[in-house]
Design the sequence.
């Protein structure tokens, strides 16, 4: 599904709204630092089902085929990673914090080979699961230390490290994620 024209309009609006605010789109930076795991994080990758309002629904070949609603606590229960990249739309370096996509897939016991990421605006992209597991893709919930608001592409958005070849295509960056389907 392509959303080039609507996405361009959205990007223009986000650029005006978010110019002074961190958290709108992100892009790879060849000089970016590799993702860093928070030393205080646990290594256990148990998925914590949503107790609060779900923000992302995991579906398909996860949890033995049972949908898994995730809230911010679900994401916060997984090991944190931090990545600094140059945000392509506001053209400045930003530090994103969240969980490795691979950790989420492991915690959800995902068994499929493809993953479709869906956004609140019905934009979606299907990836090979191996790409999301191997490329250091981050599901960010914070930027520059602050929660990412929906108006700025949150509460969960994808961030590719600067070394990711796939991340050079900004159409692959999905923000305001509301559903992840593993097939």
Sequence:
């Amino acid at each position: 599904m392509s959303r080039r024209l609507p996405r361009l309009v959205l990007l223009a609006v986000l650029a005006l709204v978010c110019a002074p605010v961190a958290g709108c789109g992100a892009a790879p930076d060849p000089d970016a630092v590799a993702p860093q795991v928070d030393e205080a994080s646990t290594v256990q990758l148990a998925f914590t089902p949503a107790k609060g309002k779900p923000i992302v629904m995991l579906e398909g070949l996860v949890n033995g085929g049972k949908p898994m609603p995730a809230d911010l606590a679900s994401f916060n229960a997984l090991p944190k990673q931090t990545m600094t990249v140059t945000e392509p739309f506001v053209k400045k370096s930003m530090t994103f914090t969240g969980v490795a996509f691979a950790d989420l897939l492991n915690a959800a016991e995902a068994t499929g080979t493809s993953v479709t990421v869906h956004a609140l605006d019905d934009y979606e992209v299907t990836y090979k699961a191996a790409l999301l597991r191997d490329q250091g893709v981050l599901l960010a919930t914070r930027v520059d230390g602050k929660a990412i608001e929906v108006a700025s592409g949150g509460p969960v958005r994808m961030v590719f490290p600067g070394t990711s070849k796939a991340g050079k295509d900004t159409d692959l960056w999905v923000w305001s994620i509301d559903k992840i389907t593993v097939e």
Summary: The radius of gyration is 15 Å.
